[in-house]
Amino acid sequence: MERGSTSSSEELTCFYQSGPKNINTNSINWEDDEHRRIIMACLVQSVYVETKELKLKKGQNQARHWYDSFHFKQVEQLKHDSLLYGVVFKFDHSKAQSMGHQNLEKSPSYILAFRGTENIFDMYHDMRLLFERLSQSDRINQAIDKTKSIILKNKEDRYRDKIWLTGHSLGASISTYVGLHIAEQDEYMLKTFLFNPPFSDHTLLERIPKAALTEMLGINHFILSRPIHSIKEGAKECAANALKKFGIMKKMEYEGEEYKNIHKWIPYLFINTRDFICNGFVDHFEKGKNLEDVRPNGIWAFEIKDEKHHIPRIPWKIDKYFPHLLPSGYLVKNTKKIDKNFMSSHKISQWWMINLPLESQVYTKDE
Fold first, then answer.
1. Number of domains within the chain
2. What pLDDT is recorded for position 124?
3. Of 17, 24, 251, 345, which is most buried by a Cβ count within 10 Å?
4. CA–CA separation, 341 vs 141, rounded Å?
């Protein structure tokens, strides 16, 4: 959700300067989790770079090095209001085989990659996500339609595990909506790689470190300490008053025939534990069985009990799914301390680094 979170710096556009180091792109092992993580991050970065190049009308074509180095090619660009937000890639299996890629039976055929926030139009979609209306956007509908189209053209069983999704920040949320929809409607469990997916619930403001907020605003934290506290308390009171006005909200559950396949979809979630935008997923999965998340003044509550998700429906909610309340997921935590600033922990560039201090755990829910 952070604006310019990856490609706003000129140096990050060049694959050979800023791309993954100490990895031979012609010796990729598709059974290696690190190799797959690096490639998925690079594909997302290519979307960021191409978005910038299209905006600036540059003819450098730096974006292609982020994907053709791994023997992918673009087959289609996904645009909304003439702005690029995603790309469909096809893997050149024959070329990769001739160049020495290993375990190609584990490789994809198609990958849909979605970038995160880069401009004011993306921020509009960030707000839609926050207020649970993102599913009504043209981006979501276009991404779902394109994914279904690829599935229909590749219906053979050998392609069932060959269509992948990946995205960063807002793009991770788009991938989540697509993955949930396809799992429920088409019973395809698409392999999905979500980098810094936003955990966009009411606790977001609470999770923002004071130092990070003052860093973003460029004001001394001693000056802002009392206003920040007032903002948080005011937000709680505002939410409580709104809920009183609308009354107790109806609860939804990820259960029954309507959601019968949701728990079978297990996306990879790459989370930096210092990133307040996405680190809510850590508590969601690690403490999920005993989670009791009481909303302001105890009016609005979320709980997981008896292996069921009991979820409140807010007054303005339109989205069917709750992308921040996934029943299953492969949680991958990056515990490395980023020296630069708090927002660096949200950048895609961390995920194409090798030898990261990662902690992994799969969490699943029975039907």
1. 1
2. 78
3. 345
4. 35
Specify the pLDDT at position 222.
45
Put residue 278 in one of left, alpha, beta given phi > 0 → left and psi -120 to 50 → alpha: alpha
Query: Hey, how many other C-beta atoms are within 10 angstroms of the C-beta on 149?
Result: 12
4 domain residue, yes or no: no
pLDDT at residue 211 in the model: 56
Q: How many residues does the chain have?
A: 367
Do the domain assignments include residue 118?
yes
* Chain center to CA of 302: 22
- Beta carbons within 8 Å of 157's beta carbon, 6+ residues apart: none
Count H helices and E strands in the chain, helices first.
Answer: 11, 12
Give the domain range for residue 211: 10-363
Look at residue 244 in the predicted model and tell me its pLDDT. Answer: 44
In a domain, 94, yes or no: yes
Distances (CA, A) of 81 to 2, 129, 139, 209, 330: 20, 18, 10, 35, 34
Strand order in the sheet with 308-312: 251-253, 308-312, 301-305, 292-294
Which two three-digit tokens encode residue 57? 């009308």
In a domain, 300, yes or no: yes
C-alpha–C-alpha distance, residues 359 and 168, integer Å: 19
- Find, among 213, 252, 36, 21, the residue nearest to 132 by Cα: 252
Specify the pLDDT at position 206. Answer: 61
